Design the sequence.
């Protein structure tokens, strides 16, 4: 009998030890609930301060690499990008030179050719292929300055190669050196008339290229959007210059290709006349289109910020 009592006493002694544990749990859950209740008003109060302006980050840097003149030349991918820009601009300039001979009737062929070029070069360098686009990307902080300068140099060299090839075939046919109609009738239209055509076309090209960057995951969508901007600029240039102003296709919309097309006059009565012609051509077909590229990129960014697009 003594043994039974001892067992029951042991069991009774064990049971009270479990009660304090449940009490501790209830105390813990109550304290957690109190902390959560007190924390909720703090989170609600923090929400109004989290609101930002629609133009916040407008001038923020949009490229990830911390590039400098000391580091950019050490990456082998950079050289592949330069070769891609050179080859792509060369082929694009050949298409532009050929379009000046074919005329507006072959604009559909030009669009298909530009889409193919952009798709082929996009994986190398992003397929800028135009100094006005590069300047717009630098101004909107999508590209470092050193990369942009090297891209422009590669594009000018590519356009020069295209001019050598195109003019070489032209001379092989037994004719004289090719005289591009895009630069031949500058005196007929006046400086500001041609300047407005170049600026409007540059803004359209830069705006569409910026919008194409939103769809860079789909290479075909990117190429179609960017090529659509180029085609629209050329169509507007043809209509405005030929139908309204009586000019003979006096536009180019590509400063790299424009440098190859009679930037330097062949003759002049004095040094001042030659120098004035060079400055006039450079401002019309190089400087003003680059400014239009900056306006086009910022116009696209400003519109997307107002629309709340991320």
Sequence:
């Amino acid at each position: 009998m003594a043994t039974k009592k001892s067992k029951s006493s042991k069991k009774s002694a064990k049971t009270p030890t479990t009660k304090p544990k449940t009490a501790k749990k209830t105390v813990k859950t109550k304290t957690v609930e109190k902390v959560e209740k007190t924390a909720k008003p703090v989170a609600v109060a923090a929400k109004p301060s989290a609101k930002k302006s629609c133009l916040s980050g407008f001038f923020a840097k949009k490229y990830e690499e911390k590039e400098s003149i000391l580091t950019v030349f050490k990456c082998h991918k950079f050289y592949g990008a330069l070769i891609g820009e050179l080859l792509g601009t060369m082929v694009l300039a050949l298409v532009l030179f050929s379009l000046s001979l074919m005329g507006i009737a072959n604009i559909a062929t030009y669009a298909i050719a530009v889409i193919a070029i952009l798709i082929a070069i996009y994986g190398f360098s992003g397929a800028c292929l135009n100094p006005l686009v590069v300047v717009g990307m630098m101004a909107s902080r999508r590209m470092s300055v050193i990369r942009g300068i090297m891209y422009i140099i590669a594009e000018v060299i590519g356009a020069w190669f295209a001019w050598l090839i195109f003019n070489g075939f032209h001379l092989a046919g037994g004719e004289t050196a090719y005289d591009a109609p895009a630069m031949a009738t500058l005196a007929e239209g006046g400086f500001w008339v041609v300047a407005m055509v170049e600026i409007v076309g540059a803004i359209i090209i830069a705006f569409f290229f910026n919008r194409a960057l939103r769809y860079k995951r789909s290479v075909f969508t990117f190429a179609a959007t960017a090529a659509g901007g180029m085609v629209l600029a050329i169509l507007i240039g043809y209509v405005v210059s030929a139908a309204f102003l009586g000019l003979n296709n006096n536009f180019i919309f590509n400063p790299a290709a424009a440098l190859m097309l009679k930037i330097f006059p062949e003759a002049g009565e004095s040094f001042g006349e030659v120098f004035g012609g060079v400055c006039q051509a450079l401002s019309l077909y190089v400087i003003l289109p680059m400014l239009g590229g900056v306006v086009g990129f910022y116009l696209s960014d400003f519109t997307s910020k107002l629309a709340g697009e991320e």
